[in-house]
Amino acid sequence: MAHQTTPSSQKALMMELKSLQEQPVEGFRITLVEEADLYNWEVAIFGPPNTLYEGGYFKAHIKFPVDYPYSPPTFRFLTKMWHPNIYENGDVCISILHPPVDDPQSGELPSERWNPTQNVRTILLSVISLLNEPNTFSPANVDASVMFRKWRDSKGKDKEYAEIIRKQVISTAAEAERDGVKVPTTLAEYCVQTRVPSQDSSSDLLYDDLYDDDMEEEDEDEDESDMESVDSIPAHLSRCGNEMIF
């Protein structure tokens, strides 16, 4: 029987999944949508303390292409999100997820777009940064962008934007309860990194099947270099339309 070669994208995704389960990014829970499908991940994002999203439990799907990491995945929120850089269908518009092509019309630099050195960690940290620091110059949701600018420029006196976000946060409590998840509400709780245990022993078999005998584990130093704090990651610019909002 001929030996079937495992696609390199599956190997890359398994290595990332294993790394994220053993060394999680603060504020996230990651699982596979289906145990045998490495190309579809479910992400639960905890709203960072001391922000409008504090106490929130926001679910999203990350869908990876077969040629990952050479092409970017897509990131779609399943939870209703009111945000300048998130479309009504939940799709996140962020430069890091845009294909690495030279497109002067977009206003983006090639260096701001996806490249194969990016990974799930950098995506997650970029999304958190985007939640806290929206880009309003070319928004995916124009109404949310205008509302956000009013809230920001009035230093919180115009409360419409903040009230919508808080209502969405409150509405996520039922989902967290269904999933048996305690959402962190303090900085100390938020920064705790909890290793996600394997659901069953078959997960170990999946790891074994995806690694060739001559394939070695990645250096731990490389993993640690990716474990940057949310505060140290600048917001990636997000330009999703041609309209400039002033």
Structural overview:
The protein is an alpha+beta fold. The chain has one domain: Roll (Ubiquitin Conjugating Enzyme). Helices cover 32% and strands 9% of the residues. The chain is built from 8 helices and 4 strands. A hairpin with a 7-residue loop joins strand 1 and strand 2. The C terminus is likely disordered. Belongs to the ubiquitin-conjugating enzyme family. InterPro entries: Ub_conjugating_enzyme, UBC, UBQ-conjugating_AS, UBQ-conjugating_enzyme/RWD. It catalyses: S-ubiquitinyl-[E1 ubiquitin-activating enzyme]-L-cysteine + [E2 ubiquitin-conjugating enzyme]-L-cysteine = [E1 ubiquitin-activating enzyme]-L-cysteine + S-ubiquitinyl-[E2 ubiquitin-conjugating enzyme]-L-cysteine. Its EC number is 2.3.2.23.
Concise structural overview:
The chain has 246 residues and is α+β, with helices and mostly antiparallel strands. The chain has eight helices and four strands; from the N terminus they run αββββααααααα.
Descriptors:
246 residues; alpha+beta; Ubiquitin Conjugating Enzyme; four-stranded antiparallel β-sheet; 8 helices; 4 strands; 32% helix; 9% strand; disordered C terminus; ATP-binding; ubl conjugation pathway; transferase; phosphoprotein; E2 ubiquitin-conjugating enzyme
